[in-house]
Amino acid sequence: MNTFHWFRESGPVLWIILACGVAAVGVFLERMLHLRRAAISHRDFLQGVCNVIDRGNVEEALQICEEAPGPVPALIRAAILHRHEARHVLVEAIGNVGRAEIARMERRVAVIATIGQIAPLLGLIGTVFGMIETVMVLRDQQPLIYAVHITDGLLRALITAAAGLIVAVPCFLMHNLLLVQIDRLVLDMESVETEITAYLTARHQAEKAAS
User: Fold this and answer.
1) Contacts of 195 (CB under 8 A, 6+ apart)
2) pLDDT tens by residue, 54-78
């Protein structure tokens, strides 16, 4: 019996498991590309924006942040827009943008975790169906029972169980890889938040003292 015949004879549960696996891979690739694109050199970017602000080109700094991808430019842009506010207002504005950016990065990541959790359960359902079919065949074919009467249902049960595990394991790996990328970006965001807040606060105080 070739592999194609196994797929054809394994019933709808197997195809549902495979469809879930394909969906998980699609989400993973889309999210990974999005996160890789967002992972810029935050220190170099922040330094460049600060240099532009020091030259008095605030509008240019805002435009640079708007054109750059990722959460770090969004945080810096929010900070620049609130640069003349009190420190607690500035921190709150940056925090609001940061939470929104984290939610955007985590979008659809839960889909992969969900598929990783339900795939073994779907495999278990397929196993139960295969065992039920085997028992029904044994009941209908007694007292003359041949090996073929038993093996078809058992094979279907084993294939669906294996498929559920085969899909679940990569899903957990993909989910963890995405979380690692998100955590790295969050650390970059926290570093930038501290630095841009200190920079703009000191600059604002200097401007007030000079005026």
Assistant:
1) 46
2) 888 889 999 999 998 889 999 999 9
Q: Is 21 exposed, middle or buried (0-12, 13-18, 19+ CB in 10 A)?
A: buried
Q: Residue 113, exposed/middle/buried by CB under 10 A (0-12, 13-18, 19+)?
A: middle
Whether 31 contacts 171, CB under 8 Å:
no
Q: What is the pTM of this model?
A: 0.82
Q: 51: Cβ–Cβ under 8 A, 6 or more apart, which residues?
A: none
The torsion angles phi and psi of 36, rounded to 5 degrees, stand at -65, -40
User: Alpha helix locations (H) across 55-86?
Assistant: 58-67, 71-81
CB-based contacts of 151, cutoff 8 Å, min separation 6? none
> What pLDDT digit, counting tens, does each position of 119-157 carry?
999 999 988 888 887 788 777 767 766 666 677 778 888
CB 161 within 8 A of CB 124: yes
Element holding 10 (H helix, E strand) = none
Domain residue extents for the chain: 12-120+178-206
